Amino acid sequence: MLEKLVRDDDALQAIFEKVSNTHRWGSDDVLGTLNFIDAAKRVEAARLVTEGLSVSLSRPFKPDVQHMVFVGSGEASAYDYFGVACHGLVNTHLDALAHSQFEGRMYNGVPITESFKRDGVHYGAITAQGDGIFTRGVLLDVAGALGLEWFPPGSGITVADLEAAEQMAGVTVGRGDALFVRCGFLDYVAGHGIPSARPGLLPETYEWMHEREIAVYGGDCTEPIPYPSDRFTYPLHAIGLVSMGLILLDHPEVERLADTCRELGRYEFLLTVAPLLLEKGTGSPVNPVATF
């Protein structure tokens, strides 16, 4: 696990360059790896619905978000106001490609000075994903495949771990798929509380996702946090979002998904998810749905 953690910034830079999709779909592209999802992929995904069973992949929004409820005497109904952060380590959300930058540039090599303004982002905003994501989802339960309750805090997931989970699930992750990874982090938190370090995908897996032409990554882990690098403090975001244009679905609820996959004996499903059309926004809270 940890023995493969890349600490050398030059090696991380080499991965950054190797997996680059800069200008792959044109200099004005704002979809990134969503370009891998074509009409045929959507039709293929729709055919996965055979049980008519849907499962939410969103974590509940807790009461500690800003919430004001208005109920007046004589009012026919109640209404409320929610103030929700679009990012962080708790809420389920989609990252816009403009969410991350690396050394002054964001996805497609765009200088942040051309996008990041006081009124929001002007390139790669979350509205680019407004038509939604409708594709094949695949769960790789790496903890289950390795016989672990959970990956230890700060540990790393390797390509071998992903492929072991593929073999256990009887699936092959491919072009246009939404990849979900379960390392058991939520089970760890339930029993031990939130740790100071988090497990995550090692950089070798970014190359693997690039080769497989994954459209979306989501899971109960991102990169190992904290990451021992001066330049790549969040390497999945720096390399995934900025270099690859990889769409990140952060902090989905994968335990219910894993339970359903085990019960049905299948690890592929139709994924549907769409962001709020927040103009010039860097992300959006979402409720992804897996349908079997």
How would you summarize this macromolecular structure in one to three sentences?
The protein is an alpha/beta fold. The protein has a single domain (2-291), classed as Putative cyclase (Glucose Oxidase, domain 1). The chain has nine helices and 15 strands.
Describe the overall structure.
The protein has 292 residues and is α/β, with parallel strands linked by helices. The chain has one domain: Glucose Oxidase, domain 1. Helices cover 25% and strands 20% of the residues. Strands 1-15-13-7-9-11-12-4-14 form a nine-stranded mixed sheet, sandwiched between helices. The chain has a two-stranded antiparallel ribbon with strand order 2-3. A two-stranded antiparallel sheet has the order 5-6. β5 and β6 (120-121) form a beta hairpin. The mean pLDDT is 92. Pfam families: Cyclase (PF04199).
Radius of gyration equals 19 Å
Number of strands: 15
CATH architecture: 3-Layer(bba) Sandwich
Q: What is the number of helical segments per DSSP (H or I, 4+ residues)?
A: 9
Q: What's the CATH class, please?
A: Alpha Beta
Which structural class should the secondary elements be placed in? alpha/beta
- β-strand amount: 15-25%
List unreliable stretches of 5+ residues. Answer: none
Distance between the termini: 32 Å
Sketch the topology as an H/E string, one letter per element.
HHEEEEHEEEHEHEHEHEHEHEEE
**Roughly what percent helix?**
25-40%
What is the topology, as strand order, of the major beta sheet?
1-15-13-7-9-11-12-4-14
* Mean pLDDT rating: 92
Relevant CATH superfamily: Putative cyclase
Coarse shape: globular
CATH topology: Glucose Oxidase, domain 1
Number of domains: 1
- Major sheet characteristics: 9 strands, mixed
